[in-house]
Amino acid sequence: VRRWFDEIYSKKRVELMNELHAEDYVWRGPGGVTITSRDGMRELLGVYTAAFPDVDFTVEDQMSDGDQVVTRWTARATHSGEFDGIQPTGNSIMFTGITISRLENGRLVEEWENFDELSLMRQIGAVPSSD
């Protein structure tokens, strides 16, 4: 799981997904979004890395129990590409999240992820700040 954050998210080594993910990998994200394949996750990563090409993830805490790993993380990036219809702002962004990962035979098979999507959207100007 740590390699996922360090190698795939931060270093953009998506070729490692074949090694680290089961083919029928399932990701459940904010707003009820569900992705049901390794290739679907690769596509989602492409959307985020196009908008935030310099994204860097810091693993703040990580703990495991049996076949599950919980990771609390912080992402930092620059909004350099279009995201969700919002043109690049050049804004530096930072948001936090938690991912629960389930593994089988050393591969990621299922993840539940929640992150501060509202904060992200505010930082790129898609949602007005409450200030």
TrEMBL record:
Please report the name of this protein according to its UniProt entry: SnoaL-like domain-containing protein
Q: Biological process GO terms, please?
A: polyketide metabolic process
Among the Pfam families in the record, one is SnoaL
